[in-house]
Design a protein that fits this description.
The complex is a heterotrimer.
Chain A: H1 3-35, H2 45-54, E1 59-61, H3 64-81, H4 98-104, H5 106-118, H6 122-153, H7 158-168, H8 174-177, H9 179-193, H10 204-207, H11 217-242, H12 249-267, H13 275-298
Helix pairs in contact in A: 1-3, 1-11, 1-12, 2-11, 3-5, 3-11, 6-9, 6-13, 9-11, 9-12, 9-13, 11-12
Chain B: H1 2-6, H2 31-40, E1 43-45, H3 56-60, E2 72-74, E3 82-86, E4 89-90, H4 91-103, E5 109-113, H5 116-119, E6 129-130, E7 141-143, H6 150-166, H7 172-177, H8 179-190, H9 200-207, H10 217-225
Parallel strand pairs in B: 1-2, 3-5, 5-7
Antiparallel strand pairs in B: 4-6
Helix pairs in contact in B: 2-6
Chain C: H1 3-21, H2 25-44, E1 56-64, E2 67-73, H3 75-95, H4 98-105, H5 110-128, H6 133-152, H7 157-187, H8 192-198, H9 204-222, H10 231-237, H11 240-250, H12 252-266, H13 268-273, H14 283-304, H15 308-329, H16 332-363, H17 379-393, H18 399-414, H19 417-442, H20 458-476, H21 479-492, E3 499-500, E4 503-504, E5 510-511, H22 512-531, E6 536-538, H23 565-571, H24 578-602, H25 605-622
Antiparallel strand pairs in C: 1-2, 3-4, 4-5
Helix pairs in contact in C: 1-2, 1-5, 2-3, 3-5, 3-11, 3-16, 3-20, 5-6, 6-7, 6-11, 7-9, 7-10, 8-12, 9-12, 10-15, 11-16, 12-15, 14-15, 14-19, 15-16, 15-18, 15-19, 16-17, 16-18, 16-20, 16-21, 17-19, 17-20, 18-20
Classes of the chains: A mainly alpha, B alpha/beta, C mainly alpha.
Chain lengths: 299, 248, 623
């Protein structure tokens, strides 16, 4: 495809990701409110929050690495979104597959970790230590899921996976071909999104919101933007692997919102697990299910 | 009753115009939009200083739901816009309140909930409380009561939202512009060597909010006692004085 | 005189000059220049790296017992020699200048250090140039002794660890010798070609014995499980840049020998045919699982360390597993990944060790619980360490990502999910442990006693920055290194990876040029978004949220010890020190046996000897 078209696609994908992510944040807060029998915030609330954060007139920074960390966090996600194919926009999906995407998604986390490190606040450092531990916990079943999906579709290219599922109809969707792996992925989805009961790295009442402890103004705004991208990416990856992606936006959007809504509904019913309980849980059931699913798929 | 009628509900205090240097490039273009968003997205610091704190959880939870106004609790002062002083202010607490206030990013708003912040309330004769809060930090809105019900709290917050939208709620600038006055009151209460890790004068200078009222005799006392705390800057090999035990 | 002769000659001269002039301040620089000359001599043979040259012979040959010993370079030797000379060059550069002066002033033997480093490089070149099995063994022994020298010269604890190493190395060398003699008995010659022709016909039982002995011999040097115990402590205690050099390339000599003998001559396909009875595993599977355990166990031991050098040394042990895994899987992706990982790992391990030594030079300690916040004081060392840890963790945009991607892809293509999970578990453990490394040294609260610390001197900073450039550029354009690995693959006879400058040209491949460019542009947009906000003010580290507490310089407000308590609470009991128990068991068994032998020899010796002589005489007379 001509270079200028590709460039337009690359510009459009992060913008779409951000906008859809904003709506997902709103959905998350509304679901939480309804479960708690409240009304919840108005429709444009995430936009108000972000504009307010970016319009703060004084904010503190703890140094160059603090600023670079936030830049890496936002910039890394903007770059990672170009590897995630969506209806009509394939972006760079053929230049690097699912494994590349999984590793690209670690760059913004690393950036944030370095930025938090320079804040010189132990609450932040503890938060990062817990975030990395949680990543160790959920990444192992996650990698099982990716391996299974690559095996079933015969490729790690996400765009090819979508086209295979679309061409062969609903019976070739991931959720039909590998249901156990789909359940595994659904079990670890709250951990990937950092939601209860696996939300150990924010933990407001234990470690003063962990990494966000010294983030003010535009720094906090950067983390909000990162959260929008995070929800969007988790939803789209699951949909791509198991729900056949989408050819038109009108069928794609309900799928990703449904995928994100399910862990959200569960999240507000649970308190937080301890760190080692998160590890134990993630390494017991999702891994067992993942191994069984893999065995079923590979026989 | 005559006395009560004379107390003004709204007191106009003139604010010196320190907004010459606006850092934000889009500032003057989108001012109204920004103020609207600031009013509809307020993060309150979940630091409830006194007995009035009991009225906050009902305001946050299902019955009165502050989140539909865009107000959510945040944990650290760095993340918060509103500081709620709920209840009496003991001298010990006042030190932490001032530190917390100074650590918050601007624009920030202080709400004095309960009558103790207005004039000392029930503890007007106590040796251990501060009676008039606005002598120590600028206060934007008072919600009198002992204690005010959640409906009153929410009504007060909505008044604050209106103030923000109309641009009247910029008392945070007064702290930088009249720092000497506030510091003087603080030093009267805490002693001459009162200091916080935050550097207000440097901040005022950095953001162009300094006036001739910022420095004075009290800040001179502060600078006499203060350990200067500058941000750690990069050093790529300038010679520094060796301290004992270095370079083993 | 061929190019190889030039190279070996310059290398020998380097050793002599290092021993003569190493103590002077110009000695280190002279030696560094000589390493650069060695590099130039290597570049004259650069056709080997691009498949335009087959082999470069040496004119030096000797004949022993009607066996002709010859030395030659092929693509594999060239690739490893490039890494060796590069590592030697940068380590020597680092050691010249202020580090060397301080080392000498503190009583260290700088002459011996430079000499040992040069001797290491020379002996490695001799090993890499081996043309048949006997020269391989000669080179192997030289390398072992040179490594011992550089590990032991610091004395004290280092000597103890070096003695442990040499015990392992002796055992390994004896196993190696046994394997080689077995081959000679079977094949009749030490020639490479004869072994290659005879291997398909060899009996499986003999071949098993050969493979086990050779793997044990090479494995001791590579420090694969169960021989992994000696390496970390020995490398950690080696003085400064010596540790950087050893960590970068020394244990890869075992991998080189493994590739030469087992992959090239015996062949992985032959290994696949060798099945372990009563299981469904073949020899190749066994090696792959050894590699995976070598990835996992040392990486999680590294997680527990609180000395920075020991942490890095344990990671060195673990990353060897990736290289072995890639090579053993033996499709085009895996072998390219394993070979590229040797290069990548050398580049960032040297840089990481240099950064840690620089910090030690300035602060006097490498204990992670006694450092913190050095980012503003040593920003360039921080940059070097940051690029190093991104590479070690295998994240884009650095070169470590490409080699790890190749290995993962080869496992997916091969269809081995459990090996894949093992490799990923190793990467995740690495990410956790390197974050702890960089956080405890450079991030967090700056200690009062370290406020006056300066950046490391130029002689240390420049090699680190050059290596950082190498890591970034080979990550951006992995085709540069993949050219060399493809030449190696072609010369060994395993399938060659189709690649281009940016990456791999298979379907569902990798194009690093696009990915890194998009990442950089993304950072640009991130910066734009960042500057949409207002101005920020830099504040002191004591202006921090502490729950309303007034922080002072006396307050330790830093989180460093026991960095992963939740994880350690869960997996702590799984560290049973079983291998150390095994090692102690072997030691006490050998000890008992040697005491028994000593008793026999000393006490009962005269009477037994008389008895044996009488019996022998009688039997000779009678029979």
């Amino acid at each position: 495809m001509p270079f200028s078209e590709l460039l337009v696609e690359l510009l459009l994908m992060p913008i779409l990701a951000f906008v859809i992510g904003l709506v997902m944040v709103l959905m998350m807060r509304r679901i939480g409110a309804r479960i708690q029998r409240r009304v919840g915030p108005p429709v444009l609330q995430p936009i108000y929050d972000i504009i307010k954060l970016y319009s703060k007139e004084t904010q503190i920074s703890h140094g160059l690495m603090h600023e670079i960390g936030i830049i890496m966090a936002v910039g890394g996600y903007i770059a990672a979104e170009t590897l995630l194919p969506v209806p009509g926009l394939d972006g760079l999906a053929d230049k690097g597959g699912a494994v590349t995407l999984a590793y690209m998604l670690m760059i913004p986390a690393l950036g944030m970790a370095l930025g938090v490190g320079q804040c010189a606040n132990p609450n932040g450092s503890i938060g990062i230590s817990r975030a990395l531990t949680a990543m160790l916990a959920y990444d192992i079943p996650f990698i099982l899921v990716i391996f299974g999906a690559s095996y079933v579709y015969g490729t790690t290219n996400l765009a090819e996976m979508i086209s295979i599922q679309q061409q062969q109809g609903v019976s070739s969707w991931g959720i039909v071909q590998m249901p156990i792996l789909a359940i595994t992925a659904l079990l670890i989805l709250p951990a990937i999104m950092g939601k209860h009961p696996f939300e150990i790295y924010v933990a407001p009442s234990e470690i003063a919101t962990g990494p966000m402890v010294e983030m003010s103004g535009k720094f906090m705004g950067g983390l909000f933007v990162m959260q929008c991208f995070q929800l969007y990416t988790a939803g789209v990856i699951f949909t791509t692997l198991f729900l056949g992606g989408g050819v038109y936006w009108i069928t794609f959007l309900p799928k990703i919102f449904l995928v994100v809504a399910i862990p959200m509904s569960v999240a507000y019913l649970f308190p937080r697990y301890r760190t080692e309980d998160v590890l134990r849980l993630m390494w017991k059931w999702p891994m067992l299910l993942g191994l069984i699913g893999l065995a079923v798929v590979m026989k | 009753m005559n006395e009560l009628d004379k107390i003004p509900v709204r007191q106009e205090i003139s604010v010196a115009d320190g907004s010459a240097k606006r850092s934000n490039p889009l500032a003057n273009v989108f001012d109204e939009l920004v103020r609207f968003c600031q009013s509809r997205s307020m993060f309150m610091l979940h630091y409830c200083t006194g007995c009035g704190a009991i009225e906050l959880p009902p305001a946050m939870t299902s019955r009165f739901d502050m989140e539909r106004l865009g107000i959510q609790p945040m944990v650290t002062p760095r993340q918060a816009d509103i500081l709620l002083i709920t209840g009496y202010v003991s001298v010990k607490t006042l030190k932490r309140i001032i530190l917390t206030y100074e650590q918050m990013p601007s624009p920030k708003y202080v709400i004095g909930i309960c009558s103790c912040t207005v004039n000392g309330g029930m503890y007007w004769q106590s040796y251990a409380t501060a009676k008039v809060l606005r002598e120590y930090i600028p206060v934007d809105i008072y919600i009198a009561g002992c204690m005010p019900r959640p409906e009153a709290v929410i009504s007060g917050l909505r008044d604050l939202m209106g103030d923000i939208r109309s641009g009247r709620a910029d008392n945070w600038k007064r702290y930088f512009q009249n720092y000497d006055y506030y510091l003087g009151n603080q030093q009267k209460l805490f002693g001459e060597d009162w200091q916080t890790p935050t550097d207000i004068i440097a901040e005022a200078e950095h953001y162009g909010l300094m006036t001739d009222q910022t420095l004075g005799e009290h800040t001179a006392l502060l600078q006499k006692h203060q350990q200067p705390l500058e941000a750690l800057e990069f050093s790529l090999g300038e010679k520094r004085e060796k301290i004992q035990g270095e370079n083993r | 005189m061929t190019a190889l002769d030039h190279l070996l000659l310059i290398s020998a001269i380097t050793v002599v000059i290092a021993l003569l002039a190493g103590n002077r301040s110009f000695g280190g620089w002279l030696v560094t220049i000589l390493y650069a000359l060695q590099g130039a001599a290597l570049l004259m043979m650069s056709g080997l790296g691009y498949s335009t040259l087959e082999v470069v012979q040496s004119s030096f040959r000797i004949v022993v017992l009607s066996e002709q010993l010859l030395w030659r370079f092929d693509a594999l030797s060239w690739f490893f020699a490039l890494i060796t000379i590069g590592a030697g060059l940068f380590s020597s550069w680092f050691a010249s200048g202020e580090w060397g002066r301080k080392y000498r002033d503190n009583g260290g033997n700088l002459r011996l250090f430079h000499g040992a480093l040069a001797l290491n490089v020379f002996s490695m070149l001799v090993l890499l140039a081996s043309g048949d099995l006997l020269t391989l063994f000669i080179g192997w022994e030289l390398v072992s002794w040179a490594s011992f020298l550089i590990m032991a010269l610091a004395g004290g604890k280092a000597f103890g660890y070096a003695m442990r190493y040499i015990s392992y190395a002796f055992a390994g060398a004896m196993a190696l010798l046994g394997g080689l003699l077995l081959i000679y008995a079977e094949v009749g010659s030490f020639d490479f070609q004869s072994l290659k022709e005879a291997a398909p016909q060899m009996q499986t039982s003999t071949l098993w014995l050969v493979v086990v002995l050779l793997t044990a011999g090479f494995g001791v040097k590579m420090a694969i499980v169960p021989f992994h115990l000696w390496q970390a402590k020995a490398y950690a205690e080696t003085p400064g840049p010596g540790a950087a050099f050893l960590g970068a390339i020394s244990s890869r000599m075992g991998l080189f020998a493994f590739i030469v003998v087992i992959v090239q001559l015996i062949g992985i396909s032959r290994l696949v045919e060798m099945e372990i009875p009563f299981t469904f595993l073949s020899a190749q599977d066994l090696l792959a699982w050894i590699a995976v355990f070598t990835i996992i166990i040392p990486t999680y031991i590294a997680l527990r360390q609180h000395d920075a050098r020991r942490l890095l040394a344990w990671h060195g042990v673990g990353q060897t597993g990736y290289m072995l895994l890639g090579i053993v899987i033996a499709n085009d992706l895996g072998s390219a990944g394993g070979l590229m990982h040797v290069f990548n790992y050398a580049s960032y391990q040297a840089m990481l060790f240099m950064a840690v030594v620089a910090v030690m030079h300035r602060t006097g300690t490498s204990d992670l619980n006694k450092l913190g916040g050095l980012f503003t004081r040593m920003p360039l060392s921080y940059l070097a360490m940051l690029i190093g840890i991104i590479g070690l963790a295998g994240l884009p945009p650095m070169n470590g990502f490409v080699s790890k991607w190749l290995i993962y892809r080869s496992l997916i293509v091969d269809g081995s999910p459990l090996l894949f999970i093992g490799a990923v578990i190793g990467t995740l453990g690495t990410i956790l442990s390197v974050y702890k490394l960089i956080h405890n040294i450079f991030l967090g609260q700056l200690r009062v006693e370290h406020v006056a610390v300066r950046e490391a001197p130029l002689s240390m900073v420049i090699p680190m920055m050059l290596l950082a450039v190498v890591v970034f550029v080979t990550g951006y354009f992995p085709g540069l290194v993949l050219d060399w690995t493809s030449a190696v693959q072609a010369s060994i006879g395993i399938p060659v990876l189709a690649h281009h400058l940016g990456g791999v040209s298979i379907s569902g491949g990798l194009d690093m040029i696009w990915i890194v460019s998009v990442l950089l542009v993304g950072f640009g947009f991130g910066t734009l978004v960042f500057f949409l906000g207002g101005r920020s003010k830099r504040v002191h580290q004591l202006d921090n949220y502490a729950g309303g507490h007034f922080l002072t310089a006396e307050t330790r407000y830093h989180y460093s010890d026991n960095f992963y308590p939740g994880l350690m609470h869960l997996i702590g009991p799984w560290y049973r020190n079983s291998f150390e128990w095994l090692e102690r068991g072997v030691i006490s068994a050998v000890d008992t046996f040697s005491t028994a032998m000593q008793g026999l020899y000393r006490n009962a010796h005269p009477s037994y000897l008389l008895l044996a002589a009488v019996v022998f005489a009688l039997s000779w007379v009678i029979v």
